[in-house]
Amino acid sequence: MPKYQPPDFFTQRIMNPLIMLVGKTTGMTMKNTHTLSVRGRNSGEMRSVPVSPIEVDGVRYLVAPRGHTQWVRNLRASRSGRLWLGRRAEEFSAEELPDSDKVPLLRAYLKKWSWEVGQFFGGVGADAPEEELRRIAPDHPVFRIS
Predict the structure, then answer these.
(1) CB atoms within 10 A of CB 125
(2) Which domain holds residue 16?
(3) Which end of the chain has fewer CB atoms within 10 angstroms, the N or the C?
(4) CA distance 82 to 38
(5) Among 107, 15, 5, which residue's Cα sits nearest to residue 65?
(6) Percent of the chain with pLDDT over 90
(7) How high is the mean pLDDT of the chain?
(8) 46 domain-assigned
(9) What is the pLDDT of residues 71-116, one digit of tens each?
């Protein structure tokens, strides 16, 4: 069964909306946090959530620290979305990576964002052995965005 760690009430109803509102109204972002907007696979409506993209070797990726979330399922279905940074929006297409390609990206993501999302990786950090990162790779979808 795909792993999913749902956000608590405070994160889902207060923090995430606040982060997105501040970004959209003031243009200011928190540590390069973007707002991801993806069309809902059932409703067809745009759904938004804060994300922390990472760039590795000039290529950008979205990593799902909480696992197989609704935004992951929506992005799998639509294969495209919109990333907002402040008031600026960018359309993108997305390609999900196989587990075998995720290890260096998970390591880079944890190096950059573990202070914020480390608790969702089951104690595995950026300096973990490759085997550990391979073990958790199926629990954390990664998308190449372009």
Answers:
(1) 13
(2) 9-145
(3) N
(4) 7
(5) 5
(6) 73
(7) 91
(8) yes
(9) 999 999 999 999 998 888 999 999 999 999 999 999 999 999 998 8
Q: Are 83 and 94 in contact (CB under 8 A)?
A: no
Residue 24 has pLDDT above 80, yes or no: no
Quickly list DSSP for the chain.
Answer: ---B-PPPHHIIIIIHHHHHHHHHHH---STT-EEEEEE-TTT-SEEEEEE--EEETTEEEEE-TTBS-HHHHHHHHHSEEEEEETTEEEEEEEEEPPGGG-HHHHHHHHHHHHHHHGGGGTT--TTS-HHHHHHHGGGS-EEEE-
Question: Which pLDDT score, from 0 to 100, does residue 15 have?
Answer: 77
pLDDT of residue 139: 97
What CATH number corresponds to the domain at position 31? Answer: 2.30.110.10
* Amino acid code (one letter) for 65: P
Provide the number of structural domains found in the chain: 1
The answer to whether residue 122 is domain-embedded is yes
**According to the model, what pLDDT value does residue 77 have?**
97
- How many CA atoms lie less than 13 Å away from 145 in the CB half-sphere? 24
3 lies in a domain?
A: no
Long-range contacts of 124-127 (CB under 8 A, 24+ apart): none
